Amino acid sequence: MTHETASSLQPPKVIFSPIGWMREHLFSSVWNSILTLITLYILWLLVPPVIEWAFLKASWVGTSRDDCTPGGACWVFIAQRWSQFMYGFYPEALRWRVDLAGILAVLWGGPLLFQRFPWKKLFGFSFLIGYPLIAWWLLYGGDLFGMTTVPTDQWGGLMLTLVIAAVGIAGAMPLGILFALGRRSELPVIKAVSIAFIEFWRGVPLISVLFMSSVMLPLFLPEGMNFDKLVRALIAVVLFQAAYIAEVVRGGLQAIPKGQYEAAQALGLNYWQMMGLIILPQALKLVIPGIVNTFIALFKDTSLVIIIGLSDFFMIIHRATVDPAWLGFATEGYVFAAAVYWIFCFGMSRYSIALEKRLNTDHRR
Amino acid sequence: MNETATATTTPNRIASHKTAEAMIVMEHVNKWYGDFHVLKDINLTVARGERIVLCGPSGSGKSTTIRCINRLEAHQSGRIVVDGIELSDDVRQIEAIRKEVGMVFQHFNLFPHLTVLENCTLAPIWVKKMPKKEAEVIAMHFLERVRIPDQANKYPGQLSGGQQQRVAIARALCMKPKVMLFDEPTSALDPEMVKEVLDTMIELAEEGMTMLCVTHEMGFARTVADRVIFMDKGEIVEEAPPEVFFTNPQNERTKQFLGQILNH
Ligand SMILES: Nc1ncnc2c1ncn2[C@@H]1O[C@H](COP(=O)(O)OP(=O)(O)OP(=O)(O)O)[C@@H](O)[C@H]1O
Ligand SMILES: [Mg+2]
Fold it and tell me: A3 touching B, CB under 8 A?
């Protein structure tokens, strides 16, 4: 502050030039230049045909396979089946209910994903309590206000996939945290139960859990008592993913220095205050990549529910590709399925990066 | 704040007048880590307003002793009474004691995900159920006392070590503790920052805070301490006012220790 000249110096300006950038990053050495050229050649071989197929020679409008030109993708197929891909066999006249549930989720839950705003806590709380009830009422129906019931075996398509993924994530997160805390508990019973739970669910494939839920569970339940197939699948997914989340979170808990626990205790915080205010906020922040990784895997694993006869997004598309009216367009179907899964997973991935940046207050040295 | 109300809600205060005078009483305290006898029959009484410095070689059990006082470590036999509350396995007793005992650690242990101000208001808000506004006023008061009010909205990672330790002191003071425990508060600091932390501690002592400090800052012990206690191998070996302790130590081990620490 005493040195006027030093403090008034500006940082050096960085001038961006494309040629300079290329020289530095792509052609900095002979070997690097060769690699760059090979890569460009491979891209040249691969990319134009794909673009040609997917966009340039593709057919976009029409009503049947006759409107498609050979040599390009037939997106007419996707367009024609669009609403089935989205809603499955949900009655057409009632699909506005699904839309409404989706819009509510975006408007009510969406803001919670982003910056702080006044009343965020209250808003979030109302969403966590209110939204599941309202969404269930909208999607399933029930006697309240004479909503027509839509049994879950008519649910399908992307809507079903999103329901399973959302319930899976919303259920697995808190349960996983509890089991992570349980596994580190000093109370032997809680610790043993947590370890048993985690190791059981981590040790069996999800597909066998789903099978068991539909084949074995009815054997144990009393006669006449019938659990909804979707509910069983949801419970299986939640428990299964909770075990994974628990281990991810435990990794985070282990990374928190003992001094943080001691400082919290010395200030008189009780166990739940210490965990909720000091330890978990830090531990969860550390394991955001692991948590999002688990959720991305969960999102894709939802497609396993087809083996108990639910028609999720992937299954609906798969079925459409074997429809005689559209035989031969399987590629378009699977490419579309992959693209949609990719968009959701990539979205989660980007969100996790943004979240990490936003929460990075440590400035650890 | 009603005096009788607070008295009745505090669990099991002991009314005996010997303990009523004392802030901390440790009687025949023993502790083992497995087979290792860390604390051997520790007897220590800290009167209200008294400033005590605890020193001794590394591994002698100084940290363990003060950490037993707020139950960061459990002792296995003997009695510990803090402000009339006897320490037991009862969580309510432990929490009652922790509300009255502030602690400052060697490595600060600030909460890195909270701002300096939030670090200071957290416990008053959650433990004492104080309204946020009031807690912030108190926090700013103590941050001014440790001379860093302008850093209130920074995160701990943005501060220097000395500043962090002063925040840690302010954070403990915000709970309005009756005793402050310090565990080598300056030994993780760069030399030029030691003074600012010691000055804060000296001011605190001058205001009459009851303090129990583990430190090797002998200058601090000389100017501030009412008594200096020397521990070795889990025992209290010698206990004397600083002028006697430094000029005329009785025990061989004390002499040896002082020789090492003062002549380097
Ligand atoms: N959790 C533990 N388990 C086993 N032994 C321990 C544990 N904590 C401390 N000890 C041992 O107890 C003894 C006393 O430790 P303590 O930390 O109280 O020493 P100290 O006097 O504070 O030493 P320093 O000056 O190095 O901080 C040491 O020998 C230490 O190795
Ligand atoms: Mg120590």
Answer: no
